[in-house]
Design goal:
The longest helix has 20 residues. This protein is an alpha+beta fold and about 500 residues long. Helix 1 packs across helix 8, helix 2 crosses helix 8 and helix 12 crosses helix 13. It is globular, with a radius of gyration of 23 Å. It contains 13 helices and 22 strands. The relative contact order is 0.15. The chain has 3 domains: about 220 residues, FAD/NAD(P)-binding domain (3-Layer(bba) Sandwich), CATH 3.50.50; about 150 residues, D-Amino Acid Oxidase, subunit A, domain 2 (D-Amino Acid Oxidase, Chain A, domain 2, 2-Layer Sandwich), CATH 3.30.9; about 120 residues, no CATH class. It binds flavin-adenine dinucleotide (FAD). Flavin-adenine dinucleotide binds next to helix 1, strand 18 and helix 8.
Length: about 500
């Protein structure tokens, strides 16, 4: 069978926070953009597993891409998140010094931050630190206060970028691995995925830890990415009050050190450690790694109760050698192939600024950028039942009883919210996709209660058989086959019940 052929001005490879941000930025202009992602959903790469901090920008070496784009990205966050309906909290951050020696280093960090253009940095004394963070290690000597630091939801941002890009005309292909790229004189490309060929004048490589493999497809080998794994503890909301803002130790050589931070959803995270791993698929957590994380976290917050940990996870940093900085720009000799590669921390913070930088590089390379008069920068935040007051909740339930049918009890997610998530502009077909959009399965029981119910709703709403529903695409099936399994029978009943509740499907599993 002939592959489907798509003509595009720009193909963006990789739908993490960087690729989706670039696609959304380009959707302001009258250009044909295709965003291609090999996984079943956006944000399933490094974007789903990091510390979720909006860094102030005092860490990076002045003059680097990292330094410039961190500070610019940080400044863009409030408006970006407001426009796109994404959770963001400007809570400030603290680098906590435990010794006089470390306290001396805080002044170096402050000076570096000021050279990077970070506003409002201040070294504050012990008493003030304890006033701000009563559960911090009482041995604290001083801290660097960064008022522009914050926290966000990385997957919410990538999903919102993608939805807004699609609403403004970008074509998004999911489960579409790029397997080869034909190049003509460095300025015209045929990007191949199974069943699809995209003819494009420009390619943007935003493939995260796989960006070196993508660059090799155009005959270049300018950098090599070795993933550096970071492991985490996620703690229950019950202990969310222990810290009010990210607490960093004085930075280590390989990373910013093990952090304790609240999340925008009210949990606490502790991590990450830093370990180079050879395998780009190695997202394992280890007893040794987690012990290191806990020890580091307790240096900042000694009372962190391990029994309140609800899960562990790991993320992979895209460490590019021989370049320590972000790699942003055309590949040598392939002028219309633009890398946005080696985007390790602070890549989440920098993402809105990386999108601007790549836009400008494309314009310099000859992409005509005429603004679209009908571009709509606003994407409304989907209704989150748990965020509403009692009156609003009652009104919703009155409008549709499925708003009162709670599927995820830990996070109070009703059936109607899951149905909405399954029918939004960027398709979502997996349990993790539902979790990232609604938080069903993100609570204390980690989907033990709601998982089977979500499978049944996906089956009913999207017509995917329960055995084919996956956790995160590929072969991550939830069920192994049809026996006399009551869940499968009930899932079928759900479809039958469609007529029971005023023509609306209602799952009673
Ligand atoms: C442990 C850790 C902690 C971090 N903490 C922070 C933090 O607190 N603050 C911060 O600012 N930054 C942080 N970062 C960095 C931040 O998470 C990353 O910079 C950011 O998520 C990178 O996004 P990305 O889009 O480049 O990569 P990804 O999210 O990995 O996206 C790349 C996408 O490309 C796709 N892809 C790959 N190959 C192909 C192919 N052949 N065809 C189609 N698609 C393909 C992948 O499936 C993937 O979805 C952290 C990173 C880690 C690992």
């Amino acid at each position: 069978m002939q592959p489907r052929r798509i003509a595009a001005d720009v193909v963006v490879i990789g739908a993490g926070v960087v690729g989706t941000g670039i696609a959304r930025e380009l959707s302001r202009y009258d250009v044909r953009v295709v965003l291609v992602e090999k996984q079943a959903d956006v944000a399933f790469g490094t974007t789903k597993a990091n510390t979720a901090l909006v860094h102030a920008g005092y860490d990076a070496e002045p003059g680097t891409w990292k330094a410039r784009l961190n500070v610019r990205g940080n400044a863009l966050y409030p408006k970006t998140c407001a426009d796109l309906g994404v959770a963001y909290k400007n809570c400030g951050s603290l680098v906590v010094a435990a010794t006089e020696n470390e306290a001396g280093y805080l002044h170096e960090l402050k000076e570096r931050g000021e050279r990077n253009g970070v506003p409002g940095l201040e070294v504050i004394p012990r008493e003030q630190v304890i006033e701000l963070e009563p559960h911090v290690n009482p041995g604290v000597v001083a801290a660097l206060w960064a008022p522009t630091g914050g926290i966000t939801s990385p997957w919410e941002l990538a999903i919102a970028y993608a939805e807004n890009a699609v609403a403004n005309g970008v074509e998004l292909l999911l489960s579409a691995p790029v397997t080869g790229i034909g190049v003509r004189r460095g300025r015209a490309f045929s990007v191949r995925c199974p069943g699809v060929v995209m003819d494009a004048r420009f390619v943007v490589n935003a493939a995260g830890i796989w960006a070196d493999d993508i660059e090799r497809m155009v005959g270049r080998d300018d950098f090599e990415i070795t993933p550096r794994r970071g492991e985490y503890y996620l703690f229950d909301k019950r202990v969310g009050h222990l810290v009010s803002r990210p607490l960093f130790p004085v930075p280590a050589e390989l990373s910013k050190g093990i952090v304790v931070t609240p999340t925008v959803d009210g949990n606490l995270i502790a991590g990450p450690n830093a370990l180079l791993v050879g395998d780009k698929g190695d997202l394992s957590t280890t007893a040794v790694g987690l012990a290191e994380v806990l020890e580091g976290a307790r240096r900042l917050v000694p009372g962190l109760p391990i029994r309140e940990s609800i899960t562990n996870f790991a993320g992979l940093r895209a460490v590019a050698a021989p370049i320590g900085d972000f790699i942003i720009g055309p590949s040598p000799g392939v002028p219309n192939f633009i890398n946005a590669a080696g985007i390790q921390s602070p890549g989440l913070t920098a993402a809105p600024a990386i999108a601007e930088a790549v836009r400008d590089i494309l314009a310099d390379a000859g992409l005509a950028l005429a603004e679209k008069p009908d571009f709509n920068s606003v994407r409304k935040r989907p209704t989150r039942f748990s965020e509403l007051g009692p009156e609003e909740q009652s009104a919703l339930i009155e409008s549709d009883p499925l708003w009162g049918h709670i599927i995820c009890r830990c996070e109070t997610v009703p059936e109607a919210e899951i149905i909405e998530a399954l029918h939004r502009p960027v398709s979502c077909t997996t349990l993790d996709g539902v979790k990232f959009r609604t938080r069903a399965g993100a609570g204390r029981c980690q989907g033990g209660f709601c998982g089977p119910r979500v499978v049944a709703i996906i089956h009913r709403e999207l017509g995917i058989s329960p055995e084919k529903v996956t956790k995160k695409g590929g072969a991550s099936f939830i069920l192994s086959g049809r026996t006399k399994d009551p869940l499968l029978e009930r899932a079928d009943e759900c479809v039958d019940e469609r007529e029971e509740v005023g023509g609306r499907a209602h799952c009673r599993v």
